[in-house]
Amino acid sequence: MPPPRTRGTGLRQRLADLRGPDVPPKALDARALAALAANPGCNRRAILDGAGVDKADLASALGSPSAFGQSQFALTRGNAFEARVKADGGAELLRLVHEKLDPGAEPPADAQVPELSAIGPEGRAARTVLALREATASGAWTLLDHPMLALDVAGSPAFLEPDAVVVHPDGSWTVVEIKSFPMLDGSADPAKVGAAARQAAVYVLALEEVAARLGAEPAEAAGDGEASGRPGEPGGTVTPRVRHRVLLVCPKDFSNLATASAVDVRKQRAVTGRQLTRLTRIQDIAETLPEGTCFAPDLPTAELTAAVESVPATYAPECLSACELAFHCRERSRTAGAVTTLGRPVRAELGGLTTVEDVLAAARGEAGDPDDPAVAALRRAARLRAEALGGHPARADRPAVPGQEAAVCR
């Protein structure tokens, strides 16, 4: 068991204690951050992701293994397509960026592809910042293949690795997302495009932090004294600009040929940024946990379950496609009769009625404030239902809320 926490324990040590002795942290990626930002009220996911807990292993240890994830076949196909797009120094990728986003610039001939390898994620992130600074000042096309970006998330750094970042001759930066789902006749599955846009928005946020730091540096720190992100102008400061139109690269129709589309992620960037700033700080959540709390998957099931249940969760059906612990949280939510199992829109309509039993009691007139709009709507719905059934009043064994039959079967 990990040693008891004390007030003086540093955040890193505290998170290591929560993760378990000798358990390496699982790094956050853009997919996880996009899902985390989509449910900012879930303290359970915030602390588990912040501590680097492998939620898939945790779900299996709790007896609720997750089906969430990407198949090995899809990963292999995606890696092969990405390698094809980036072949020959990224010539095809840069051609698509030039065509879709910057046709007025010079064609990307003899583009630079800097080496970004370094020791550890911190080293790679520092090397990426240096490469971005040099590329911004160079005035030439530059392709950064799998750069490493650092983004502050609830007081803890998350290291992100986009597929590529392209620096334009004018010093602006573009995020490139390479996906293996097809683009048929110039359009792709809207749900998949939306997920890719939310993921790219996380990279845009991380790049904006880098751009803000570089923009505040003296020109001498950039290497050759270029100003305002425009090559050749001496003096001033380098002020790179992150483009809010990202490039989504996909296979064309059912071939291995690449096609691309420019996607505006300003809305996703604003939503993600706002939700990330609202996240409860990880150290504040950790302070509320009982002494000795640990999420190591090799603990006894009862002890591990108690540790997980000590952190409040906010379950919604959308979690099934975004979180490895969704099956466990859904079962607990159903057991508690929480209305969140019916979805966020239903939860928002019900106001202060938080359980299915409260909803049914309000609909039957057994509880609830008649002046509450939600209670009044429920009672009116119950009367209409009774009339539709031939004047028979709603009974306790018959759901009084339309759609409740379907909810019970879920």
Measured between the Cα atoms of the first and last residue, the distance is 38 Å
Instruction: Sketch the topology as an H/E string, one letter per element.
Output: HHHHHHHEEEEEHEEEEEHHHHHHHH
Percent in strands: 5-15%
Instruction: Catalogue the unreliable spans.
Output: 1-9, 219-237, 399-410
Helix content: 40-55%
Give the number of DSSP strands: 10
The overall average pLDDT, rounded, is 82
Number of helices: 16
- Main sheet record: 6 strands, mixed
Structural category: alpha+beta
In one word, what is the shape? Answer: globular
How large, in whole angstroms, is the Cα Rg?
Answer: 26 Å
Give a short summary of the structure.
The protein has 410 residues and is α+β, with helices and mostly antiparallel strands.
Structure description:
This protein is of the alpha+beta class. Helix content is 45%, strand content 12%. The protein has helices spanning 11-19, 30-38, 43-50, 55-61, 72-85, 87-101, 120-138, 190-215, 266-278, 282-287, 301-309, 326-336, 344-349, 356-364, 373-388, 404-409, and strands spanning 142-145, 149-153, 156-160, 164-167, 172-178, 226-227, 230-234, 241-242, 245-251, 258-264.
Topology, element by element:
Layout: H1 11-19, H2 30-38, H3 43-50, H4 55-61, H5 72-85, H6 87-101, H7 120-138, E1 142-145, E2 149-153, E3 156-160, E4 164-167, E5 172-178, H8 190-215, E6 226-227, E7 230-234, E8 241-242, E9 245-251, E10 258-264, H9 266-278, H10 282-287, H11 301-309, H12 326-336, H13 344-349, H14 356-364, H15 373-388, H16 404-409
Parallel strand pairs: 5-8, 5-9
Antiparallel strand pairs: 1-4, 2-3, 4-5, 6-7, 9-10
